[in-house]
Specification:
single chain; 977 residues; alpha+beta; Aldehyde Oxidoreductase, domain 3; Aldehyde Oxidoreductase, domain 4; nine-stranded mixed sheet; seven-stranded mixed sheet; 21 helices; disordered N terminus; iron ion binding; oxidoreductase activity; iron-sulfur cluster binding; Ald_Oxase/Xan_DH_a/b_sf; AldOxase/xan_DH_MoCoBD2
C-alpha cells in the first residue's frame, strides 16, 4: 500500500497557545474518504439509491483504515522503528502506592524506560485541565504518585517503554496477572475525588398539557445541589448556604467555559427556592394520594448495571516527539479530532523540557459508542512519546486492558414513584431519584446524570414532576459518554413501572400508554415543547394491532401446553430518546466547477454510522449530483474565519449579546461525533449549503437556459418559480421544463458569474441561529447559519473576484444575527426520536434461561436518508439492548474489571442465537411530509427492547424485575428455586 502524507494533506487547525496545530486524515490509496481528491461514484446509482456504503470497499478488502492499523513505518517522515509501551495498573484502591517491583522480568526483559508520576511531574507533563470542562475532568495525575491512594481501580501507576517488540510482548504477558509487582503501603480506605454534582428538575404544569408551566426549569431554574458526604443537599432557606459546583456549568458533551458558581448561585437562588417549594408541594400531593383510594401510588427501586462498550477498536494512540523540530506527531482514535488537538495544545503549551511548536494530528475511522468522546487515552499516548528516546511510542489497549481502563456505561440506582388516577388512568406525578456511580474519574458523569433525570419521563406527560439526580465519585472504573447516555438506564425502569401500573389498574398496557403519551405542544418535564409531532399515538396504535400483541393470550396458552417446562411471554415498551447536545454545530464547504464536478469538505467524522455516506446522499438529493471529491473530518475551514469562547452552555445572555457584535464569533466551533447528531444536526448544515446553491446558483442558471431562444424560450409560456424546481433523474427539471444535466447548469452558472461555492457554519441551542447576509450577486438573504462565505463563478466581474481573499472565498459579514437565548439551555432537550418494541420469548422454568423468539420494532425516523444505514443501526442497537437486559454486567469494585482479569471469556455478549437474528421485523413511521426532518436514531434503537424483554419475562412467569440484567439466577430465585 502506498500512502502520502504531505503538508498539503494536513489542514491547519489554527494556533492554540502559540502552538501551530495541523490536522489530517490517514491517506489510503483505497479509502479516499480520508483525504481530499477524486472519488468514485459507483457506490450510488443514477437514481440516487445507495448501492453500498461509500467507505465499504476499503473495509471489506482489509485496508488500513483505523488508527490502530498504523505503525511508524507506514507513515512517511516518521522513524521506521517503532517503540511500544504498556501500563502497570493498581488493582487496589484503598492503600497507598509505594512503587513497582519488576524483578519478575529478570535482567533480559527490563524496559528501556520506566516512567513514574514523579518523572512526569518533574518534566512538567501534566494532565490537561481544559477551560470549560469540570475540574479534574481527566483526573489529577496520569499515574498515581508514590504515597497516594489510587482514586480508582485500574489507575495506571507506571509506564513501561520498550524499543524491541518481542521483549515488550514477553514482558507484558509476564506481568499481566503477576502479584507483588505493585507495592502497596498503608491502608487508607477509598480516596476518590469529590462528588461530581447534584441537580433537580421540578415542574408543576398549567391547567392543560399545552398551557405554560406554573414552575419549570425552562422558565425558572434548574435546582443545583451540594453534598453532605454522599447525600445531596438542596438550597436551604438562607442563600449563603447555596453551593453550585463548577461541574454544573459545563456542557453536556463537548468543551466550554466555566462561569463563576457563586455568581450562578446568586442569580438563581430565588427561582431555585421557589423550585424547592414546588417540590414540597409535590411531596404533599404524593402523601395525599397515598390516603386516597381513588389514586394509585407505585414506589419502586430500580438498578441498571455497569457495562463495557465492547467497541471493535480498543483505545489506542501512536505518538512521536521530534525534538529537532519541536513537532508532536499523533495518530489516535477519536470521535472529536478538533477537541483532541485543542486539548493536546493546552497540555504541552508551557513544557520547557519538551517544547512543542507544531502538532500534527492524524485520525482514522473509528467506533467507540461514545467512549472515544473526550477520552483521556490520546493524552496518555502524548505523555508516553516524550520518553521514547526519539522513537514513536505506540500505546494500544488489548482487551484485558480495555476492560480495565476503557470508559464504561454508568451504573445507576433509582427510586421512582408514579401517581395515577384509578378512574381515568391518567398519570399525575412522577418523582425520581437517580444515583449515578461515576467512578474515579469525572468525565461526563454529571452530565449523564442530568440526562438520565430529564429522560425519565419516557413518552409520557406528567402534570407534576420532581426528578433529582446525583453523580457520585467512587473507586469504580471510569464511566462516561457511552451510547445511551443515561437514558437507557432511566427510561427502562420507567417503562417497567408503567406496565405494573397498567396491571394494577386493569388497563391494557398499550391503552394506558395512549392515555398518557406526549403529543404535539405538550411540555416535557423541563417545561420545553419538543420539536413537532412525535407520533407516539400513531406508533402505539400500530403496536396494538400487531399479531404478536393481539394474539398473546392464546399464543401463551398454546405454547405453554405444547412445551412443558417452558413459559411463553410477550412484552412491549415504547420510549423517546433525545438526540443532540444543546450546542450542536456543523460546518462544510460545498462547491462545483465549470465542468460540473462537485467538491465537498465536511466536519463530519466517520465512527461507523455511515455518516460520510449520508452527507453525500443529502447533497445528491438536493443538487442532483453526488460529490466527485470529498474530504471528511475537516477541522479547519480557511473560508470561515470564526472565533469562539467555547462556552455555549455557560455564556451569559449579556456576554452573548456583546460577543455577537463580532461577525466572526460563534458560540461553539465544531462538533464531536456523539449524541446521534449526524443525521439531523450535522446534516442540517449540509442541507443549508445545498439549499443555498440550489436556490441561488442552479435556479438562476437553469432559468437562463430555459429562457434562451426566440420570444423568451421554453419557459416564457408558463409561470415557474424556484418552488417548482426539482431534482429529477438525469439532472434538474420541474415545471414541465426540459431536463438539464447538472454539468450544463454548472457551466451556465460559472459563465454568469453566480455563486458556485458556499461555506457555512451552523449552531443550534435547541433552536437554530439565523443571520442576514448581503451577498453581492444575491442581495440581503436570511440563512439558518451564523457564518457564511461564498465563491463566485469563472465569469464573475473582476471586482467580485478580488473579494475572494478568505481561503479563496468572499467572507460575507452578517448584517444581523439571532442566536438562541441562553435560557434555552434549561430545556434539557427538545428533539426526540420515538421507538417501540414487541418481544416474544420463552423462559425455561428449570434453568431460568430466556430464549428470545422474535421481536418487532417500530421507529419514527423522520425522513430517511439511507434506509440500509437505519436498518444497520437498528440491528446493532437491538443486540446491545438485549445484552443489557439479559446478560452484560460488570461488578463495580474489587471483583470488577479494574482488577485486570476481565475479558470476553468472563463477559458475555449476545450472539446471533440470543437476539432472534432471523426473526426480527421492523416498520418505520412515514414522515408527516416531504419536508419532515431526519431524526437521530443511533441511540434510541437499543432502548425499548430492554424493558420490552423484561416485561415479556413478567408475562411469561408472573414475576416482576427492576434490577438489570435479568439473569437465569434471578429468574430461578423469583420462581422459588
Amino acid at each position: 500500500m502506498t500512502i502520502d502524507i504531505s503538508r498539503r494533506n494536513f489542514i491547519k487547525l489554527g494556533t492554540f497557545f502559540g502552538i501551530s496545530v495541523l490536522i489530517g486524515r490517514l491517506p489510503d490509496a483505497h479509502a479516499l474518504e480520508i483525504h481530499s481528491g477524486p472519488s468514485s461514484t459507483d457506490w450510488i446509482s443514477p437514481d440516487g439509491k445507495v448501492r453500498y456504503r461509500w467507505d465499504a470497499l476499503n473495509k471489506v478488502t482489509g485496508q488500513k483504515n483505523f488508527a490502530r492499523d498504523f505503525r511508524a513505518q507506514d507513515l512517511p517522515g516518521w522513524p521506521k522503528k517503532q517503540a511500544h509501551a504498556f501500563f502497570i495498573k493498581a488493582t487496589q484502591a484503598d492503600r497507598t502506592f509505594e512503587g513497582v517491583d519488576l524483578s519478575i522480568l529478570g535482567p533480559d526483559m527490563q524496559p528501556d524506560r520506566l516512567i513514574l508520576q514523579e518523572d512526569l511531574t518533574g518534566d512538567g507533563v501534566a494532565v490537561p485541565q481544559p477551560e470549560g470542562l469540570p475540574t479534574d475532568f481527566y483526573g489529577q495525575n496520569f499515574l498515581v504518585p508514590k504515597g497516594h491512594t489510587p482514586p480508582l481501580l485500574g489507575q495506571p501507576v507506571a509506564l513501561l517503554i520498550y524499543h524491541d517488540f518481542d521483549k515488550f510482548e514477553a514482558a507484558k504477558r509476564s506481568l499481566r496477572f503477576a502479584e507483588g509487582v505493585v507495592k502497596y503501603g498503608a491502608e487508607t480506605g477509598p480516596k476518590p475525588p469529590s462528588n461530581y454534582g447534584a441537580a433537580r428538575y421540578v415542574r408543576i404544569g398549567g391547567d392543560t398539557p399545552i398551557a405554560s408551566s406554573v414552575y419549570s426549569p425552562m422558565q425558572d431554574a434548574v435546582i443545583w445541589g451540594a453534598f453532605d458526604g454522599n447525600k445531596p443537599v438542596w438550597p436551604p432557606e438562607s442563600p449563603t448556604g447555596v453551593f453550585v459546583p463548577a461541574s454544573v456549568m459545563t456542557l453536556h458533551r463537548g468543551g466550554g467555559g466555566v462561569r463563576d458558581p457563586k455568581a450562578v448561585a446568586r442569580e438563581t437562588y430565588e427561582p431555585m427556592r421557589r423550585g424547592m417549594n414546588a417540590a414540597a408541594d409535590i411531596e404533599k400531593a404524593i402523601e395525599a394520594a397515598r390516603q386516597d383510594k381513588n389514586k394509585l401510588v407505585l414506589d419502586r427501586h430500580g438498578f441498571s448495571q455497569s457495562i463495557d462498550a465492547s467497541a471493535m477498536e480498543p483505545d489506542n494512540g501512536n505518538a512521536w516527539y521530534d525534538a529537532k523540530t519541536h513537532t508532536l506527531h499523533i495518530i489516535t482514535a477519536a470521535q472529536s479530532p478538533y477537541e483532541v488537538a485543542r486539548v493536546a495544545a493546552l497540555m504541552v503549551k508551557n513544557n520547557k523540557r519538551f517544547p512543542v511548536k507544531t502538532i500534527k494530528l492524524l485520525t482514522g475511522t473509528t467506533v467507540g459508542y461514545g467512549t472515544k468522546d473526550h477520552s483521556i487515552f490520546p493524552f496518555y499516548a502524548i505523555a508516553a512519546c516524550f520518553y521514547g528516546g526519539g522513537l514513536p511510542v505506540r500505546l494500544a489497549n488489548d482487551r484485558y486492558e480495555q476492560f480495565q481502563l476503557g470508559i464504561k456505561r454508568h451504573s445507576i440506582e433509582m427510586d421512582v414513584t408514579i401517581v395515577a388516577d384509578r378512574k381515568s388512568g391518567k398519570f399525575e406525578i412522577i418523582k425520581g431519584f437517580y444515583n449515578l456511580n461515576g467512578g474515579g474519574r469525572a468525565n461526563f458523569s454529571f452530565s449523564v446524570a442530568q440526562v438520565a433525570a430529564t429522560a425519565a419521563q419516557s413518552i409520557y406527560y406528567f402534570p407534576k414532576s420532581d426528578l433529582a439526580t446525583i453523580a457520585l465519585a467512587t473507586p469504580a472504573v471510569e464511566a462516561g459518554s457511552m451510547r445511551g447516555y443515561g437514558t437507557i438506564q432511566a427510561m427502562s425502569i420507567t417503562e417497567l413501572l408503567v406496565d405494573e401500573v397498567a396491571a394494577d389498574l386493569g388497563i391494557d398496557q398499550i391503552e394506558l400508554r395512549k392515555l398518557n403519551a406526549m403529543q404535539a405542544g405538550f411540555e416535557n418535564t423541563q417545561g420545553a415543547q419538543p420539536l413537532g409531532e412525535l407520533n407516539n399515538i400513531e406508533m402505539l396504535d400500530l403496536a396494538a394491532k400487531h399479531p404478536l400483541w393481539v394474539n398473546r393470550a392464546k399464543a401463551k396458552a398454546d405454547f405453554d401446553k405444547a412445551n412443558p417446562g417452558k413459559m411463553y411471554g410477550v412484552g412491549f415498551a415504547q420510549v423517546q430518546k433525545d438526540y443532540g447536545t444543546g450546542a450542536d454545530t456543523s460546518a462544510l464547504t460545498l462547491e462545483f466547477d465549470a465542468n460540473g464536478k462537485v467538491r465537498m469538505r465536511h466536519c463530519v467524522q466517520e465512527i461507523g454510522t455511515g455518516a460520510t455516506t449520508a452527507q453525500q446522499v443529502i447533497v445528491r438529493d438536493m443538487l442532483g449530483k453526488a460529490p466527485d471529491a470529498v474530504e471528511f473530518g475537516v477541522a479547519e475551514f480557511p473560508e470561515l474565519p470564526v472565533v469562539s469562547n467555547w462556552s455555549p452552555y455557560t455564556t451569559t445572555q449579556k456576554q452573548q449579546d456583546e460577543f455577537q457584535k463580532n461577525p466572526h464569533w460563534v458560540p461553539f466551533m465544531l462538533p464531536a461525533m456523539s449524541a446521534s447528531n449526524s443525521a439531523y444536526f450535522i446534516g442540517f448544515g449540509t442541507r443549508q449549503a445545498a439549499k443555498f446553491l440550489f436556490e441561488n446558483s442552479l435556479w438562476p442558471a437553469a432559468r437562463a437556459i430555459w429562457s434562451e431562444g426566440p420570444a423568451g424560450g421554453q419557459i416564457s409560456s408558463g409561470f415557474m418559480t424556484v418552488n417548482d424546481l426539482r431534482v429529477v433523474e438525469g439532472g434538474i427539471g420541474g415545471g414541465g421544463m426540459e431536463t438539464l444535466s447538472f454539468e450544463r447548469v454548472a457551466k451556465k452558472a460559472h459563465a454568469m458569474g453566480l455563486v458556485t461555492g458556499v461555506s457555512l457554519h451552523c449552531f443550534s441551542r435547541w433552536e437554530w441561529a439565523t443571520a442576514t447576509f448581503d451577498v453581492p450577486t444575491i442581495g440581503p438573504i436570511k440563512v439558518a447559519a451564523d457564518v457564511l462565505s461564498v465563491r463566485y463563478g469563472d465569469g464573475a466581474a473582476p471586482k467580485l473576484k478580488k473579494r475572494m481573499t478568505t481561503g479563496g472565498y468572499d467572507f460575507i459579514k452578517r448584517s444581523s444575527v439571532n442566536f438562541p437565548s441562553v435560557q434555552r439551555n434549561n430545556a434539557g432537550v427538545t428533539t426526540y426520536a420515538p421507538a417501540a418494541c414487541i418481544v416474544e420469548l420463552n423462559v425455561n422454568s428449570f434453568t431460568g434461561e430466556v430464549e428470545i423468539m422474535r421481536h418487532h420494532n417500530l421507529l419514527n425516523t423522520g425522513k430517511v436518508i439511507v434506509p440500509e444505514l437505519v436498518s444497520g443501526q437498528l440491528q446493532g442497537g437491538l443486540a446491545m439492548g438485549i445484552g443489557h437486559a439479559l446478560m452484560e454486567e460488570l461488578p463495580l469494585y474489587a471483583d470488577g474489571p479494574g482488577n485486570g482479569t476481565w475479558n470476553f471469556n468472563r463477559y458475555t455478549l449476545p450472539r446471533g442465537k440470543d437476539v432472534a437474528v432471523w426473526n426480527q421485523t421492523a416498520e418505520y413511521l412515514a414522515p408527516l411530509s416531504d419536508s419532515s426532518p431526519t431524526k437521530g436514531i443511533g441511540e434510541v434503537v437499543m432502548v425499548p427492547v430492554v424493558a420490552a424483554t423484561v416485561n415479556a419475562i413478567t408475562h411469561a412467569i408472573g414475576k416482576r424485575f427492576y434490577e438489570l440484567p435479568v439473569t437465569p439466577e434471578k429468574i430461578k430465585k423469583a420462581l422459588g428455586q
